[in-house]
Amino acid sequence: MKSFIATAAIAAATLTTPAFAASENYVLDASHSQIVFTYDHLGFSTTYGMFSGFEGEIAFDQEDPAASSVNVSFPVRTMFTGWEARFDHFMSGDFFDAAEDEMVTFTSTAIEVTGEDTALITGDLTLNGITNPVVLDAKLNQVGMHPMAEKPWAGFDATTTVLRSDFEVGNFAPFVSDEVEIMISIEAMQAE
Asked: Where are the chain's structural domains?
């Protein structure tokens, strides 16, 4: 469930943009970047969770977006479920059995530009000690000068779907859906 967050955030950063020179480094704005995940619970409800406050870097090449790259990582235990007992269950041996320092990482491996402001970002998502390829369907929202920070800024959205069982956290499927939908929205600022 964590992979979705990291993957989407990074994938979005590699799209074509109209305002800046090729090969610029960006860092994620942790205060305005979120990964939201959803799954079906017994057919009765859609349950939501989120990761936020994570960090990452994007090397963005405007002239050749396919040559861009994204790297993101964050602790599994930064997951927010909205209910402490659910969080405790997710961190237990039934799911992640997550230590305090266990990380979720996403590293892009390929970018396929699909339109003026869209791309498919393929990358390696490591979750629960297991690495699998994930594809983010990414969209560039905007690139321009941030009105308050007065520096170049970029915003992206991305979506993907992962299977919990691919990362050995698939307990209780199919009652709790194996498929987890991930929505990522990030802002990134040009690095100093």
From this structure: 3-190
